[in-house]
Design brief:
- The strands form six sheets. The chain has a five-stranded parallel beta sheet with strand order 10-13-14-15-16.
- It has a domain of 246 residues: Alpha-Beta Barrel (TIM Barrel).
- It is an alpha/beta fold.
- A hairpin with a 2-residue loop joins strand 11 and strand 12.
- Helix content is 37%, strand content 14%.
- Helix 4 runs parallel beside helix 5.
Amino acid sequence: MITRRDFVGGTAGAMTGVAFVGCELMSAAHVHAQPAARRREVVVNGRRVKTVDVHAHCAFPEVMALMGLKVNPASLVMGAERIRAMDEQGIDVEALSVNAYWYKADRDLARQLIALQNEKLAELCAAQPDRFVAFASVALQHPDLAAEQLEHAVKKLGLRGAAIGGSVNGEELADPKFHPFWAKAEELSCLVFIHPQANPDFEKRLKGNGGLINVIGNPLETTIALSHMIFEGTLDRFPGLKICAAHGGGYLPSYAARSDAGCVTFPDRCAAVTLKKKPTEYLRQMYFDSIIFTSEALRHLVAEVGASQIVMGTDYPFPWTKTSVDHILNTPGLSDAERAAMLGGTAAKLLGIEA
């Protein structure tokens, strides 16, 4: 059963019926409404910076019902709880996304579901334009339809890009069948946020203690997806793509040099597609959120991909989200300009948010 945080009340009717949920559509433990918090202002070297969170989950129970998904009413809280949490954490703007649960839907249902969901995302953002922007949902199992949905969402609804899973019904994002979607994303010059989802291929080995399907499976899904996009030539075919990978890009930035070495040591394994540059160099044309937990991990990610490619994420409503701003502020070795860019400057440019 899927739990949720229902966004009710507030400034407009559009705020009713949105759920703030975590990875795999699971909400964090129920939190009772609390008094409004003073809004934290984030300052770098005496200068106020606008912070942007690129990784925050929501869902719409009315839309989920089209796929037969049910809601646990015991977990309902007021929408003011989300704003209160943002104010406490120092988050000025959130880029909302819905984790894909509709990849099994046939074309007609997918068209109906996505149309309704994107309209609701747009209404929510219009009701709180200073606090929310959103990534569009797309029915990627029908790539030509997904391209149409993305164009409509960006041009007509004002959404800022698309959020997609790390694979689609077991098919890799680098599969040529998805080229129509990637072509449209490149044409629109909009950001595509790749978030992993439960992969049934991992379930047998990752079951048991530790929540390994999430802890290991999620970053592994992203690692595989990005690696295929590099090695199958997707990033060469569509060099203008703006891709942001969740959870710091998974394991890939931490072990990317093995990809380079693999092509040198076993050139026949890289011969099917002629890459225009070394595998590691493609990392510097993608973006990565900052959800990697330690200062040393963030420092290493900066060393591998460049500070200009890192944007802040919280993964709200999971408990570790309370530290995202301080994670960047407290990591040693970053310049003031790099901190400001990672906290919100880079994401604001990518998402068309006014400074």
